[in-house]
Design goal:
Order of helices and strands: HEHHEEHHH
Largest sheet: 3 strands, antiparallel
Radius of gyration: 17 Å
Strand content: 5-15%
Shape: globular
Structural class: mainly alpha
Strand order of the largest sheet: 1-3-2
Length: 137
């Protein structure tokens, strides 16, 4: 998928991951979404990070505007995001949104800066390992 105008690099990565995960029957957590983002972007850093609700909502609304698909977002009991592809967009109600935003203050969040810094680091590490093991033989 090409980059969508009006989205940051991270929001584009979120949109691409949502499309790639597609129609999983059960709602999936933001950690599954983040795993897909890391795979798409080749990230090795911030393995315990999550996405900001604002970035996820922007990506979902942009996908809806472009008639690419519709997703719903809900919270579980510990304020983790649950995402599911549906027939029409359903975002968090105001109370759940407030709870999530308060929780995000203590979470490690993935940012555009992380995407820029993290790209290619996985490939560099693999190359160093190969060179190291190759030198020993």
């Amino acid at each position: 998928m090409d980059k969508i105008d009006g989205l940051t690099e991270l929001q584009n990565a979120i949109a691409q991951a949502l499309i790639k995960i597609g129609d999983k029957k059960a709602p999936y957590s933001d950690s599954i979404l983040l795993k897909e983002i890391r795979g798409l972007c080749g990230l090795e850093n911030k393995k315990n990070a999550t996405v900001r609700l604002a970035d996820l909502e922007k990506a979902i609304l942009t996908l809806e505007e472009n008639n690419i698909g519709f997703w719903s977002v809900h919270l579980d009991s510990v304020n983790n995001l649950l995402i599911k592809k549906v027939e029409s967009v359903v975002l968090l109600n105001q109370e759940d949104k407030s709870n999530r935003l308060r929780s995000e203050k203590s979470m490690v969040l993935l940012t555009d800066k992380d995407l820029k810094e993290g790209k290619g680091k996985g490939a560099q590490k693999k190359m160093k390992k190969k060179q190291f093991w190759g030198d020993e033989e």
